[in-house]
From TrEMBL:
PANTHER family: SERPENTINE RECEPTOR, CLASS T (PTHR23021:SF11). The chain crosses the membrane at residues 32-55, 67-91, 103-128, 149-166, 207-228, 240-263, 275-295. It comes from the Eukaryota. Keywords: Membrane, Transmembrane, Transmembrane helix. Gene3D superfamilies: Rhodopsin 7-helix transmembrane proteins (1.20.1070.10). It holds the Pfam family 7TM_GPCR_Srt. It comes from Meloidogyne enterolobii (Root-knot nematode worm). This is Uncharacterized protein. The keyword Membrane applies.
Length: 324
């Protein structure tokens, strides 16, 4: 939203559709129906899985600050998952480009960084929290316990608003099935000069994520190796599994960040790589509940309890109907 708020003249240069005829590129070349349907189906699969996970995190949030971080991450994922699944799928089925639906595509684009940036930073903070909790619990208590975790979440949210207010949005382009900075890509020659600062900052963001996560886990892995004998009686199986969950999610984020940085810098690259980037983005926000349900015993048990409650509420009514 940078240029809407602070520099309207440049906004009109970048987002001006005057002289653009959307149908210069036939709708058949702007639609990918099979890919779009797969994206929409993934949205319907992933979304319901989040709700038992959030219920479990909320139920256990008093036990450890990591559950509050997990609630925040889940909310960010829920707020963003609809973009690469439902929005991208519907846009593609209708052959949408910026000039065919400027307000809607711009609105969707603004939502991406508003939630992507805090999700990534909170993911990094969760990794630090888990590592400290296992290796240096006293430091973890000073940094995250007694509601101090909320200061970290405020920082993450402010970081998201920075991207919303001061950077360009990425706009869906049906020609390449990609979200890119240049809204007129495919209709005008590349205008990368307008987005140089954005590319520098998003590349820096993604590389910090891609490099920072492995460094954090490698350093604490060494700490655990040297301190394992002293800590072996204190580290529970549940803590180790939570550590593994956070590690897997962080690596998904890192991989997606590297791919998206390359795609942003090379908007005319091969379609297959763009597809890899897009589906990795979907799984970054959709796979966490699958990981929680597979590896987190607490989440699994709470989910079973939810289904038992639902079953018990349904069963008596069915029985009374049959007797009647």
């Amino acid at each position: 939203m940078e240029f809407i708020l602070w520099n309207r003249e440049n906004f009109d240069k970048i987002y001006n559709c005057t002289g653009i005829n959307v149908d210069d590129i036939p709708i058949e070349k702007r639609r990918y129906p099979i890919t779009a349907i797969i994206c929409i189906l993934l949205g319907f699969i992933y979304y319901p899985l989040y709700f038992p996970c959030i219920y479990s995190f909320w139920k256990n949030k008093a036990k450890n600050p990591c559950y509050i971080l997990l609630i925040y991450l889940s909310i960010m994922d829920i707020c963003l998952l609809w973009v690469p699944t439902f929005a991208a799928g519907i846009f593609s089925l209708n052959g949408v480009v910026y000039c065919s639906s400027p307000f809607l595509t711009y609105f969707v684009g603004c939502n991406i960084f508003l939630f992507w940036a805090p999700e990534c930073s909170a993911d990094l903070i969760l990794g630090i929290n888990r590592c400290l909790e296992i290796a240096f619990p006293n430091i973890s208590k000073k940094l995250f316990h007694n509601n101090r975790v909320y200061f970290w979440l405020i920082f993450c949210s402010l970081y998201g608003f920075y991207w919303l207010l001061f950077r360009h949005a990425v706009i869906f382009n049906g020609i390449n099935f990609v979200f890119a900075y240049d809204p007129l890509n495919g209709y005008k020659p590349s205008r990368i000069e307008f987005f140089e600062q954005d590319l520098i900052e998003i590349t820096l963001h993604n590389y910090i994520l891609a490099i920072g996560s492995p460094i954090i886990y490698i350093l604490f892995a060494f700490c655990l190796i040297f301190k394992f004998r002293a800590l072996s009686n204190k580290i529970t199986k549940e803590e180790i599994l939570v550590f593994i969950q956070v590690f897997i999610i962080s690596m998904l984020n890192s991989t997606c960040g590297i791919i998206s940085s390359y795609v942003d810098k090379n908007p005319d690259n091969r379609f297959n790589l763009q597809m890899v980037g897009h589906f990795s983005w979907i799984h970054v926000h959709g796979a966490p509940p699958v990981i929680y349900l597979l590896l987190n015993k607490t989440v699994r048990n709470d989910t079973k309890n939810i289904f038992k409650i639902i079953h018990n509420k349904i069963s008596p009514s069915n029985g009374s109907n049959m007797l009647g």
